[in-house]
Amino acid sequence: MASDLFEAPDYYNLDELLTDEHKLVRDTTRNWVKKEISPIIEDYAQKSEFPMHITKGLAEIGAFGPYIPMKYGGAGLDQISYGLIMQEIERGDSGIRSTASVQSSLVMYPIWKYGNELQRQKYLPKLASGAWIGCFGLTEPDHGSNPAGMITNFKDKGDHYLLNGAKMWISNAPFAHVAVVWAKDENGRIHGLLVERGMEGFSTPETHSKWSLRASATGELIFDNVKVPKENLLPNKSGLGAPLGCLDSARYGIAWGAIGAAMDCYDTALRYSKERIQFGKPIGQFQLQQKKLAEMITEITKAQILTWRLGLLKNEDKATSAQISMAKRNNVHMALNIAREARQILGGMGITGEYSIMRHAMNLESVITYEGTHDIHLLITGLDITGLNAFK
Ligand code: TGC
Ligand code: FAD
Q1: Would the CA dihedral through 322, 328, 331, 332 be positive or negative?
Q2: Segment 295-354, tens digit of pLDDT
Q3: Three-class SS of residue 162?
Q4: Of all atoms in ligand 2, which is nearest to the CA of residue 212?
Q5: Would residue 140 show up in a list of annotated catalytic residues for this protein?
């Protein structure tokens, strides 16, 4: 990839709304991404491999558990800082942000919120330091948008639980040390279980041939009569609301992350439009290209304001699930549209790995599907405003 010349757009002076700590966190992450991600990411995406060596760096910048209390190894930051970290990492690559999202909001969050003190002490410091990587198993081959229908289940065998079933499309699965697995008990109630690599009957085959999120590892979780110790059940919350509560936190991070990807595409296209000459002029002087760029910065600015306000609500513990859904849906769609338009501004160069845009566009095709599809989030808004359920 060409060298990373990224300059963040801030059309409405939103920096003035950030504290010194927010700016420090953001700039630290931005510099880390320029140094550690930009030079290598295209190569890893091309070879379809997660750059395992970066996990220590992600931990050092506070990307593993940004808002988890420091006594468990987390960074103890607020929700705006968490969002800014996700924004900057996804500016580099959505797949790397995926690893940070899963680790923080889908693995550390449920252990922190639904686990007991022994589980917190055992797992959180290892996850915060990047010594261990976790994954989150909710989706199944036949139950994606409708996780309530899951068939993965466990039976009480006296001194242990016996777990059977399969999960699909699981980020980090191929190398995760621990999986937070959602499964039904004998009464059909959903619980979270901590399943560790090495437990007999537990395997994690990798999913190959993806055109999207190529620098993130995706796999299955297969449970064939896995004996799970009883102390590995998360005791403090059960029911579908437990995994959905984790998703609220991850979806919030994605709403910020998508802005990062959009900013990178916009910044790249803006620079290119001033340098590329056709018909004796920079292409940025043609009205058609200006229309694309002007609409991009407008949409980015609207998304920035939306997430900033959502961050304040989240800091006060007032953000609703439906508000988070709206931001995830809007911002990912906005970023995908910007990636597609920015790609066109670069003409043929836009499809190459010399620039980040095509990689962002392909990544965002996953981001618009995972953590609730674009349609599902629209239906969540529809239900919230009408009170009428259009899911089923
Ligand atoms: P429903 O009857 O509406 O709700 C069941 C219970 O859950 C509660 N609830 C929530 N709680 C917390 N947060 C939320 N967002 C919640 N939404 C609902 C609800 O109050 C109820 O509680 P209770 O106590 O009454 O039982 O459930 P439903 O079966 O009708 O489903 C609703 C629907 C469709 C919105 C939900 O199933 C959904 O969100 N589906 C999308 C599935 C999804 O997002 N999967 C994501 C998998 S993980 C992933 O993609 C990770 S990608 C990782 C990466 O790389 O970044
Ligand atoms: P389906 O649910 O089969 O949906 C297919 C289509 O039908 C979609 O367009 C959907 O919007 C539409 N649809 C479904 N229901 C309705 C309805 N009621 N009304 C209208 N339209 C509807 N999951 C995890 O648990 N953990 C992970 O770490 C994880 N990582 C992922 C990584 C990647 C790269 C990808 C691609 C997915 C990942 N997922 C993960 C799974 C992801 O959450 C699901 O793909 C997603 O929830 C959609 O489920 P599905 O693919 O089965 O699609």
Answers
A1: negative
A2: 999 999 999 999 999 999 999 999 999 999 999 999 999 999 999 999 999 999 999 999
A3: strand
A4: 34
A5: no
